[in-house]
Amino acid sequence: MALKKIYTGIFRDGGAGVRAKERYRKRRQEIMDREKRVMVLTGVPYGPGGETVWAYAHCPTYQEPAIMYLTGINQHQVVLLLDPLSKESREVLFLPRKDPAKEFWDGIRFGVGDPKSIREVRQVTGIQDVRDMDELKHVLKKRFLKTRPRQIGLLWMEGKVNGRAKNVTGDHNWKFKTRVHGWVRSWGAGKNPVSNIMKNHFDLRLPLDKFDVDNTQKAQDITATAFKETLKSFHSFKREYEVQGFLEGQMIMRSSYGLSFPSIIASGPNATVLHYMKNDDEFSKSELVLMDFGVRWMTMHADISRTVPASGRFNPMQRMLYEIVLNAQLQVEKGARPGGTIKELNAICWNAVNSGLEEKFKGLGGKWKLAYDYRPHGVSHLMGEQEHDGDPYRNYADQPMKPGWLISNEPGLYGKFRLRIGGKVYDEKIGIRIEDNLLITHDGCRNMSRKVPKSVRDIERLMKGEGK
């Protein structure tokens, strides 16, 4: 039986259709098999306009990725309790009370308070024990006091920076951890009554399954089509926001799941600002325009960067620098394999970029001043339920890559460059980034972004109105 359309906003079946409930149930079982303790995870605590009312416009609800991964539920005020040792229910979902008046304004939401509402949640999500959010503390206390040793598994973001432990302390996960920690201490808990399930959770979540891979490919294909259409119309654009409006429109008209992130459209020297977000400058036909963009499909993402000439044709210096970056990207793709590390890919990337400058650009008399030492940023980040997934401090860069991991491949070059070629002097402040998304396979990698044009020839042909 297909999912009713009214639920698509609050439950993502991940493309699994009738198999969605079993897919999420299996994921919950896998984390219980690893942790073997009571666990409790929170979704996002409030929806659009819930904390800053004036920011309501264009602010959709994006669920805590862990809750999305384990349940498919996309609404705020959701808590999931998992208890692998219980002789009662092993899965308990806590929700607020159903509010028909609010649904009249904002649409259907899961809730409790009457048998019909609870049946609705059970039918759609597959979770049978559904409770009022007000019962959370009582139920958790009862389960906690039965456990030996008395310890609750929670999720918060932690890692190491320069060898020192560091936590993300400003998000909803940390606030929930602080709240639950206070409860368990009041229940007579000993030392270390809470533990972090982050490592086991990411070990399970980061390798994409078949549905995730299919959804990622769909996001890539939509993004590729939008980019091609944008290149064909580029001759009519004079301002960064015109490019942004057209490109994002092309993506959004093909996906109901929104953008992967706010697009970066940076022309000329603006492209040397890595997270440039102003997107409101005019640009001349002599400048390069860097675009960082992508769309979601279900809960998966595309994260693409391309750099194109506003005139439709690279000048000789721009082309040389672009192809140095492109060569580095191709070298990284060749080196991406299971067992290797992102740290190793960084060495491949920045050695290729810097040696390319020395051997090719300097060899022709070119001069440059970079905005950084050796490397401007990492060449790769993990992708999955989040567009930037895995631990936020990227300690995973030292870990062997696994089949199913999705990583970015984004070498860049940013600085001021000068070169005399063909009797003409080119002197520009330039930022170039070329980014694809690679799926690690059992014997190498698969470029999920292969349909997004990136060769000089393909870009120039599309901007002239040629090609497909």
- What is the CATH C-level name of the largest domain? Alpha Beta
Q: Which fold name fills CATH's third level, the topology of the largest domain?
A: Creatine Amidinohydrolase
Question: Helix tally?
Answer: 12
Number of strands: 20
Mean pLDDT figure: 95
How do the strands line up in the largest sheet?
4-3-2-1-5-8
| Largest pleated sheet | 6 strands, mixed
- Residues in helices, as a percent range: 25-40%
Envelope shape: elongated
Please give the alpha-carbon distance between the first and last residues. 38 Å
**Measured on Cα atoms, how large is the radius of gyration?**
25 Å
Quickly give the structural class.
alpha+beta
CATH superfamily of the largest domain: Creatinase/methionine aminopeptidase superfamily
Number of domains: 2
Strand share of the residues? 15-25%
CATH architecture of the largest domain: Alpha-Beta Complex
Uncertain stretches of 5 or more adjacent residues: none
